[in-house]
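Researcher: Go.
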Amino acid sequence: MKTVMIGEIEWQAEDNGNFYTWDEAMEYASTLGDGWRLPTIKELFSLIDYNEFDPACSKIKNFRPSYFWSGSSVVYHSDDAWGVNFAGGHVHSLTKGYCYYIRCVRDMKLKKKKNLMKCCPICGSKTFEKVTQNNGILGPGGRSWAIYYICSSCSVLFKDVEKFFKKQNDKQLKQLGGKRGIKDVHL
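Model: Structure:
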């Protein structure tokens, strides 16, 4: 499948030529795996270029001048979802039972984070558990939550996996290697 990057969102470069009801579109996107989904209405709307017509999109080539589903339901009417008509760049509330085109997306920022955690540097396990814990700090939006990752095999606790995997060198990893139990890695 060919893709196009726009900001931190990866788009399918082409639709597959099929029409889908909204439920079928959601199902199709989930079968692609690896974070693929229908775009939000905001993401789909961001493709509209009002200096263009038929299609009203210049960010992705070969865009059909037709209706496309978003993954955003209409809050006040559960039988509808938001879509965009790329013939003229209009946003519409569309009945979920009707059939329209789709272009799936995935968030590359999430994909990059996912790829950082390939295996535990202590034991080599590829299985981690994400744990959130109230850290007791009261912030502007209420309590603050800390996110930790625990290796399923050796129970080492990592506070910030992304920084850990980016910054730790081989020497530091060897120093940590002989220790078992829950270990807080401070960065």
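Model: The first strand starts at residue 3 and ends at 6.
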